[in-house]
Amino acid sequence: MRIHFKTSYENDIRLFPDRWSFFVYAALVAGAIILPWLLDDFFLGEVTNVLIWAIAGLGLMLLTGQTGQASLGHAAFLALGCYSCIILMEHGVPFLLAFPLAGVITGIFGTLFAIPAVRLHGIYLAIATMALSILADDIIVMLAPWTDGVSGKFAPTITIFGLEIERWTTPDRFYWLVLVVTILCTLAYRNLLRAPLGRAFAAVRDSEVSATAMGVHIAFTKAAAFGLSCAITGLAGALMGFYAGAFNNETFSVVISISLLMMIVIGGLGSIHGAFFGAIIIAFLPQALSMASDTIGGLLGANNVAIPGLETGVFGAILILFIMFEPMGIYGRWLKIRTWFELFPFARKDMFKRQKSYLKTERLR
Q1: Model pLDDT, residue 306
Q2: Closest CA to 357 of 328, 335, 337
Q3: Domain ranges of the chain
Q4: Which residues of 17-37 are buried (b: 16+ CB within 10 A; e: fewer)?
């Protein structure tokens, strides 16, 4: 068991709590860099998909897990980031400029949406964001001169300093590009949590009344959370467009918003690790079910076994089980297992008893 002996207030905001944590994350990054030499193109594409979903999860985690604002409309911001990046590149803007601009544009629209939306709470905010996600489909069709409507668009080849990057012809280069964006987004998220704004996010999440008493501007904090969350989500949407190769108004449906929310709940709300754990589940579950169906079909002597709604049903069952038995998600379960081993044989079951987090001050709202 490691003991952290803190000698100053700066110890609480260090990027890594100790050298061991730094070594573990450095080893993970090193392993991710050499992954293209260890996997074939198919599985490398699946890992790339996991990283893209993880970036989108970080965006929603910042809003829902860190600030406590439920959103079912992030598919609209995924679409905005995707179309913004592709349209800018079609007008001659290089990728290195179009990609961050797509995040900025999405963040601005997210902030504008947040100005009236911050007045809503709980289920009402979720309904408002869900309505935005549903309207995004019609908006894309109405803006057909820019978005090509139902015909959709094809993602162009990415060119960085003369080096061409394409999801199908150069999957290793595209993987490294996504990996770099993932690392940068993760570091930005982690540093934001160490900043005063990140602490304000947590204060608003825990109790708006208490946060106001401490001098936190609630409306500004929520709007900032929306803007930053949408900016990260817009970057993920742009990468999703390049990953898919072709997309239209039906690509970013409201189902994507629901899946994204369920992903961070299963992974673990309020943690960076939860976004990655949830992304692994949502990205690999379809392939795992497909392989299982092929195996069962082979045992039964059938060519393939098609079960309508199998993926949705299994994902829903996983979500229900986590809500009932492990509300803290996969990362919460990992923390409990790690703590049990660290304290063995002194660990007790009552150490992990769920505590009520409801604050009476919230009744004043």
Answers
A1: 62
A2: 328
A3: 21-253
A4: eeeeeeeeeeeeeeebeebbe
Mean pLDDT confidence for 243-258: 88
What pLDDT sits at residue 242?
94
Q: Is 25:16 a contact under the CB 8 Å cutoff?
A: yes
Using CA atoms, how far apart are residues 231 and 236, in angstroms rounded to an integer? 9
Over the stretch 48-105, which tens digit does the pLDDT of each residue have?
Answer: 999 999 999 999 999 998 888 888 889 999 999 999 999 999 998 999 999 999 999 9
pTM (2 d.p.): 0.90
Higher-pLDDT residue of 359, 225:
225
- The dihedral built from the CA positions of residue 175, 176, 179 and 180, taken in this order, carries a sign that is negative
In this model, does residue 358 exceed pLDDT 50?
Answer: no
User: Which of the 8 DSSP states describes residue 13?
Assistant: G
Helix axis angle for 171-194 and 41-60, nearest 10°, is 20
- H-type alpha helices, 61-121: 74-90, 95-117
SS3 362: helix
CA proximity to 182, closest of 335, 65, 33: 33
Distance, CA of 61 to CA of 225 (rounded, Å): 10
What's 39's DSSP letter?
S
